[in-house]
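Weekly structure sync, notes
Attendees: PL (lead), two postdocs, one rotation student
Agenda item 3: pending single-chain targets
PL asked that the sequence for the first pending target be pasted directly into the notes so everyone works from the same version. It is reproduced below exactly as submitted, 423 residues in total.
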Amino acid sequence: MDYPKSDFAQDIRRVSQIQIVPTLLDVICETTGMGFAAVARVTEDRWITCSVRDDIQFGLVPGSELEIKTTICNEIRDSGQPVVIDHVQANALFCRHHTPLTYGFQSYISYPIFLKTGSFFGTLCAIDPSPAQLDNHKIRGMFAAFADLISFHLQQIELLEHSDHAVRNLSRQLINSLDENRQYRHISSHTLQEPLRKLRIFSGMLVDSIRGQHLEKAEQLALRINSGAERFSTLIKNLSSFASLETSESKIQPTDLEYIVGLVCAQMRSELEEKKATIQVGVLPTVTGIPDQLEQLFHHLFENALKFAKDSVPLTLSIHCKAIVYYENAGGGLPDGQYVEILITDNGIGIEQSQLEKIFDMFSQLTPDPRELSEGIGLTICRKIVRNHSGQISITSQENVGTTVSLTLPVEQTFNEYHTIQF
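Predicted structure, written out during the meeting:
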């Protein structure tokens, strides 16, 4: 009996949140005289215990699993009807049935649990090695009522989870919006004002130079004004690009991240060859997202790795991932669900620890590097794209060792295989 995979853990957790379930199982055992009662999650190929009372040492605990084909619950799922057996040996239909022969019980009762949506969840069942008086109105009525009560509570828990998820999602959106508004205010009052201030100063100096007929100085000032205007234009263009990064249902589709990474590598082949770069890519999943934005995400991350590569050492980039599961009430800051954490590691010059807190802020500049400076928008765009995909991005770095970017994105299913692609 193995512990269930992550897709059943949520069902077990939901049943465990129904505080009345242990009492229901106690009532069943006390009323029927049976030694084992349980709530089981039953699918086409799995039988998982969600809650249990075991006085006969049957050996099951929450999370235990039985082979689905060895259970009668498998037949109940197909028929949607309860099964009640007072005495297996005296029952013509079940006296030679493989389930009681396998597990050695003589009395058995199991009622289906249907969710309010009409879908089959599992069963409320009880067994005992001795016969019991079960096939009567009292016991049948009790099991039917208890199964319906469990269904009601499961529905309420799901509704509360959806409500909580919506509140948390709105809270995340509000926090993100407040953060972006904070940056916009800083940009409007500082980042954009600085080049405008310089343009005004140089323009005044240019007028004075022309009036004084200092033509050589006037030419130099004109060049500086042109350079300042170009930078101002770049800032506005980057702001427009950032503002245009919105989600659209019509653009969301299954996106193969291995294809996206391969496409970016092909687009940047000349730059990668110039740095003698080696890129190793582990298996990457397909996510539901916006292909153009995900392509832009990896493009900016590759550009950063190239920009901060060491001069005399060939660049190496390692991209691998692992499947993880988040539960909101367990922390992590993400909605319930399955995620993939993608780690992009390089061997570049690294980033000072003091810079990591502000690295995602719009137009933030790292400690100036004489080789090349940017306008500081790339990682801001990366964070916006990741947020658009309901994920998270973070960076860890060590100077003269390298940098690791962590991308956490939701996926619809887990994956286990591993292989390496080298570009």
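Discussion points:
- Residues 248-423 form a domain with the Heat Shock Protein 90 fold (CATH 3.30.565.10).
- The two ends are 43 Å apart (CA to CA).
Action: rotation student to compare against the earlier draft before next sync.
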